[in-house]
Request: fold
Amino acid sequence: MSGSTAQMTTVAPESITPNPKNPRLYFNDERLDQLRTSLQEVGVLVPLIVYEDPKASGRYVLMDGERRWRCALDLGFDSVPVNIIPSPSSVENLLRMFNIHSVREEWSLIAIALSLRELIAVTGEDREGRLADETGLTRSTVRRAKRLLTLPDSELRLIQEEAHLDRNEQVHREDLYLEVERAASVLRTAIPEISAAYTKPQIVRQFVRKREEGTLNAVTDFREVGKLAKAATDKLVEEPVLVEAAKRLIDDVSATPPQVYEEVAARAVEQSELARRVELLAESLAGYQGTDTLTAALTRQLRRLRKQIDRLIGAKDSG
Amino acid sequence: MAEALEDPRKTEFRDQLSAALDSAGFDVDDARTPIPYLAGTGLKGPGIKSDVLCVDSTGKRHLYFLRLDASKPLPGWLINNITASYEMTDVEVHVAVIDETVQIRASCGAVGVGLVKVNDDNTIEALLNYAPPSQTSVHDQLLTAVKDARRRLEKKVELNLGQLQKRFDDIASVTAGMPTQMKDKYRSGIEEESLSWQEWLADMSERLDASSTTDDLTVLENLVAEIVAKEIP
Reply:
């Protein structure tokens, strides 16, 4: 960073402002208890890192030490030790966020995603590999964060507002949205009529409603949508039936993906899989044609199979 | 600014309790100026800063601390404040909850802090009165032992996080030339180990908090043994 070097001093916590580039909205109050106890008993040993607020004389913007700052306010500290660094550029500010939140302070995926969005907007760089190198994130984290960013701001806000809650208290969880995003994408890709009738945000909203209204058993239920989409791609079910089922899944908040899949496609998919296995079996058996070296066990099984097939096919043929 | 980054549930609860106390005739002090510690507490900061502060008609100050999760034991910093209040005049300390639990009752009863429940209709139900214990020497001994154990715990975690941070800072050079998947796995490994240490810290801290509201030093001794035994991978 350019300009003068860092300066150690103490300032009143009230003179510090959270960093506008940090998308964290709230802290879970009771998760700060351990740190509050530590600060109360030994004090703030590691200075906060701040820079002077260019817009407000006598005020500082927080760079590192949000939790310590929040706890110092809660405990009524008159002052906290700070290291005042030169004002960072926009990019430096953003990159530092990623560095700070790598090991010591866990960052939620939504916070990562929102910071990544800012970084992409400022630098113009959106390649997964380059972003991973610059930020220190893994490529899979970058990938997941970018998927979240394809969602409407209104949905991102819902995730952000619950990020501080314990997992079992969250309705709008990141993993829910990752499943919903994938489900909405594959459905629109596999069934063009659905793509024409519904935008992705519309489908996302409708799917999230199922969670909001308690219809879902698990967020992974949305993986059944992928299987429905595959049934469409493989033409295992008639298109009008699939379109109707997909529309019902989207429009009816009480319809669940496992339910719709079971009603419309499960049987056809199962039989397709069975047909494939029969084909493999036939190929294997072809190797024994014209030989008399079958074992008694195999012969017994083949006779049983023949009887079963006769019953199945016989019924079909006479029907 | 005071509420910046504050859990909105706490902000809402604070407003609810303040309104309830105001309706009940108390004089709510929005400034929440800390009540100065007496000399010798050894605590950092100017004094006891509560979540809600009010004064009754006799001039007695009532300090309320909000607990959103009544299933957890009272934390160390709060027990320190409660203990510090014993020697103060015209001060009473209370814990305020929305849901009453056996744990919160036991925890509060053990340290003599008041306990109130705030109902949906903004009325306050007094569950326990503020009643400092008559014998404080055993309690003081226990609190000192808990503080020592906490320092050991923090030191151990800090040592490990420091090492993990160094490894993270060296990632670029260590993983240069590695395939992407291996690089990511190495990085994720450090992050997961860090998270694991922080979760252990939170868990042990909570157990230390719980141990400070019993009179059983054995519980504390076992916790210390666990801290010492925790292996560095």
About this structure: The beta strands of chain A are 7-11, 16-17, 48-52, 60-64, 80-85. The first helix of chain A runs from residue 33 to 42. The CA atoms of residues 64 and 100 of chain A lie 7 Å apart.
